[in-house]
Amino acid sequence: MSDFGSTNNSDATTGAPFSRRRFLQTALGSSAAIGLGLSGGASNALAAPLTRDTLLRVATYKGDARQFHKVIGVDNTPYRVEYAEFSGGNLIVEAINGGSIDLGTMSEIPPIFSVQSGAPLKLIAILQGDVNNQTLLVPEKSKIRDVAELKGLRVGYVRSTTSHYLLLRYLQEKGLSFADIKPISLSPQDGLAAFQSGQLDAWVIYGPMIQLVLKQGAHIVKTGLGYLSGNYLYAAHTKAIADPVRHAAIADYLQRERKVYDWINRNHDAYAGGLAKTTGLPKWLFDAQLKQQSQPFKLIAIDDAAVRSQQKIADTFTEHKVIDRRIDVSGLWDRSFSSALV
Question: What is the pLDDT at residue 47?
Answer without folding.
Answer: 53
